[in-house]
Write a structure and sequence with these properties.
It is a single chain. By secondary structure, the protein is mainly alpha-helical. The chain folds into two domains: 1-116, no CATH class; 150-234. Helix content is 76%, strand content 0%. The chain contains eleven helices and no strands.
Length: 234
């Protein structure tokens, strides 16, 4: 499972970071990445991307999750090469969600031998809805880079306050809805709601690059915790 996730994630990273717009954005937001720091050229990244695609899809024939891997490649192509990331906020969020659902699908397929229950598919759809409605947490620390790239994001289009309020509201909703879906133990409720509350409060009360990075990292931790909820069911 971990090998499948790592190989397919490598494809996504190479496909995204090699683009001119991404290099411009990363020069502002993430100058330590290989391309803006001149440790890798765009042409070299493209060559490695070709190799990574072949390895990721080919290994899926052995590890499982082949259909999920091929579907993920389609969404990666749409997001990056067809410029879906700049085609509007909700198209971008939908493509983000679709990609992450493919990761869930592929990971579960490698663990289960390819057979997924209807409940598992429902959960994958739920995680997609979570991503669509909360992934703009990543846009808060990237405001300056997105401005430089000319990308419209939730905080730039609707305003920072609206972005923070909507993020906090949806995080709290999912922090309760997901434990209910899986009927988890008290530990599951504690993890989901504590991380959700912390993120929501910080998003509303604290501003600035450092705090926005904290909110984004908490979002990543919160999502990881939600993915673990099935293991905490009663």
């Amino acid at each position: 499972m971990l090998a499948w996730i790592w190989l397919n994630l490598l494809v996504e990273d190479l496909a995204n970071q090699r683009l001119e717009g991404s290099i411009i954005e990363d020069t502002v937001n993430k100058p330590w990445r290989p391309l803006p720091s001149h440790r890798l050229t765009a042409d070299q990244a493209r060559d490695w991307l070709t190799v990574a695609i072949v390895v990721a899809v080919g290994s899926s024939l052995v590890l499982g999750g082949y259909t999920a891997s091929v579907t993920l490649m389609l969404f990666i192509w749409m997001y990056n090469d067809l410029d879906g990331s700049n085609s509007g906020i909700w198209i971008r969020n939908a493509l983000n969600a679709s990609g992450l659902m493919c990761f869930s699908w592929g990971a579960l397929a490698t663990l289960s031998g390819g057979e997924l229950s209807s409940r598992a598919f429902t959960w994958i759809l739920v995680t997609g809805a979570i991503i669509i409605t909360t992934v703009h947490a990543q846009d808060l620390p990237d405001i300056e880079g997105d401005k430089a790239r000319g990308r419209l994001t939730v905080p730039l289009l609707y305003g920072e306050t609206a972005a923070r309020v909507s993020l906090s509201a949806m995080v709290m909703f999912w922090s309760v809805a997901c434990p209910l879906f899986w009927d988890v133990s008290a530990w599951g409720w504690a993890v989901s709601t504590s991380l959700g509350c912390a993120m929501s409060v910080l998003a509303l009360q604290k501003r600035g690059q450092w705090w926005d990075e904290v909110v984004w990292k908490l979002w990543c931790l919160w999502i990881a915790a939600l993915y673990l909820l099935p293991a905490l069911g009663k």
